[in-house]
Design a protein that fits this description.
Layout: H1 3-18, H2 26-38, E1 42-45, H3 52-63, E2 67-71, H4 78-82, H5 87-91, E3 108-112, H6 119-131, E4 133-136, E5 139-142, E6 147-152, H7 159-165, E7 170-173, H8 182-193, H9 202-211, H10 221-234, H11 241-257, H12 271-274, H13 278-287, H14 301-308, H15 315-330, H16 339-352, H17 360-372
Parallel strand pairs: 1-6, 1-7, 2-3, 3-6
Antiparallel strand pairs: 4-5
Helix pairs in contact: 1-2, 1-3, 1-9, 2-9, 2-11, 2-14, 15-16, 15-17, 16-17
Length: about 375
C-alpha cells in the first residue's frame, strides 16, 4: 500500500470513529475532510437539532488540532470571534488583537448561524476564509485554518449575505433522521453519549493529502467535467465560472481520498455539492445521471452515494459492511452478525448488481456471506 493510500485509509478510520453512533451523518463527516483536503469550506443547511455541531465537534476531536466553535447572533461582537484588543499594546499606541484561543488560531472552525454575523464580522471572515489571513488594526497574521464549517437553518434572501455564502464551495442540505431509522438513531445516540473519543492524530494525514492537491493529474477528468457543465447549462442549472474552476479542487481531493494521484470520471461527484441550492442539486442528480454512473470512492462512500444514488457508488459501503459481518461472524471477534443482518445485506447486493455486473471482489464476499446463511431443512 502506498503512502497516499495509507493516509487516505487513516482518514477513513477517523471518519468511522467520529461518526460511530451518529446515524445518517457519515456524509457530513466525509464532506468536512473533503473540504479540508481541497482547502475549501463547507456550508451545512438544515433545521436545528440535526446533529450538525455534534458531527463537526467529533470530527475535529478525532483529527486533533485546535478547534474553535461559536454560535453567532445579531449582537455578537467581532472580539468574541477574533479576540479582544490588546490593552497593553494599545497603551503603547498600537491597535493589536490578542488572538489566543480564538478563530485566527484554529485549525478547524464551526460557526453556527453564520449569516447572523454583523458586517464587520463577515468582512473579516472573508479574509480568513479566502486568504487564510487575519487583518485587524496593526494585527496581520497567517491563519492555520484547514476548514471552516458554517451552519444555517436556510439560505439567505439578502444578496450580500448570499455572496458571503458563495464563499463556501460545498453546500450540504441535511434533514432529520427518517422514521424508519429512529430505532437505530436512539441506540446509536446512547452509544455515542457513553463512548469517549480517542484522538487519532488524523491532522497529519490530512495535511499530507492537502499538500499533494496541486500534483493530482486531472487530464482524464477535465473533459468529463466540461461535458457535465454543458449538460447543466442546457438544463438551465447555472454554476458561476469561479465555482466551476474551484470544483477541480474538490475532484482532485476526491481522488486523493480514494488513494489515487490521478482523477477520473469516477471522481466527478463532488460537482453536485458545488451547486448552491437544494433544488439545483436535486435536478442536477438526474441531469448528470449517466456521467455519475461510474462514481465511487473507497473512503468517502456515503458522500458519493448520496450525491449519485447509483449502484457503483454503493460498492465500497457494501464491501466494507460485508467484511465487517464476516470478521464478526467467521472470526468471532465481538459476536457474530445476526442472520437477519446478513440476509438483508445479501438482498441489497442482489438489488444493486446483476450476475453480469457484480464486481469480482464483492462477488467473493457475497459467496462467503451466502455460505453463512442457514437453509431450513
Amino acid at each position: 500500500m502506498s503512502s497516499l493510500q495509507t493516509a487516505a485509509r487513516h482518514i477513513r478510520d477517523s471518519i468511522r470513529a467520529a461518526t460511530a453512533g451518529l446515524v445518517g451523518r457519515d456524509q457530513l463527516a466525509e464532506l468536512i475532510v473533503l473540504a479540508a483536503v481541497a482547502q475549501e469550506h463547507l456550508l451545512v443547511v438544515g433545521p436545528p437539532g440535526t446533529a450538525k455541531s455534534a458531527v463537526v465537534r467529533r470530527v475535529a476531536q478525532i483529527l486533533g488540532g485546535r478547534y474553535f466553535e461559536y454560535l453567532l447572533g445579531r449582537f455578537t461582537e467581532p472580539s468574541e470571534l477574533f479576540g479582544a484588543v490588546d490593552l497593553k499594546k494599545l497603551r503603547e499606541g498600537t491597535v493589536e488583537t490578542d488572538v489566543s484561543g480564538m478563530l485566527p488560531e484554529a485549525d478547524i472552525a464551526f460557526l453556527d448561524e453564520v449569516f447572523l454575523g454583523s458586517t464587520a464580522i463577515l468582512n473579516t471572515l472573508l479574509g480568513v476564509l479566502n486568504e487564510r489571513r487575519f487583518r485587524r488594526g496593526h494585527t496581520q497574521l497567517q491563519c492555520p485554518l484547514r476548514v471552516c464549517i458554517g451552519a444555517a437553518n436556510g439560505l439567505p434572501d439578502d444578496e450580500a449575505l448570499a455572496a458571503f455564502g458563495d464563499r463556501f464551495l460545498l453546500h450540504l442540505f441535511v434533514e432529520p433522521v427518517p422514521d424508519n431509522m429512529l430505532e437505530a438513531m436512539l441506540a446509536g445516540g446512547w452509544q455515542a453519549d457513553h463512548s469517549p473519543l480517542a484522538p487519532q492524530s488524523g491532522m497529519a494525514y490530512l495535511d499530507q493529502l492537502s499538500k499533494l492537491l496541486g500534483r493530482v493529474n486531472l487530464d482524464d477528468a477535465r473533459p468529463a467535467l466540461a461535458n457535465a457543465i454543458r449538460k447543466l447549462r442546457q438544463a438551465g442549472i447555472v454554476l458561476s465560472d469561479r465555482r466551476i474552476v474551484k470544483s477541480q479542487r474538490l475532484i482532485a481531493a476526491a481522488a486523493l481520498l480514494g488513494g489515487r494521484g490521478t482523477a477520473t470520471e469516477a471522481d466527478l461527484w463532488p460537482l453536485l455539492y458545488a451547486l448552491p441550492t437544494q433544488e439545483a442539486q436535486q435536478n442536477a442528480r438526474e441531469v448528470l445521471r449517466d456521467l455519475f454512473a461510474t462514481s465511487s470512492n473507497s473512503n468517502l462512500f456515503s458522500a458519493v452515494e448520496e450525491a449519485t444514488l447509483q449502484p457503483m457508488s454503493r460498492l465500497a459501503r457494501l464491501s466494507e459492511t460485508a467484511e465487517t459481518y464476516l470478521a464478526r461472524t467467521e472470526g468471532k471477534e465481538t459476536g457474530g452478525a445476526s442472520m437477519g443482518e446478513i440476509e438483508a445485506l445479501l438482498r441489497e447486493i442482489d438489488a444493486n448488481f446483476g450476475v453480469d455486473s457484480l464486481p469480482p471482489a464483492l462477488n467473493a464476499l457475497r459467496t462467503r456471506l451466502a455460505a453463512l446463511v442457514v437453509v431450513p431443512a
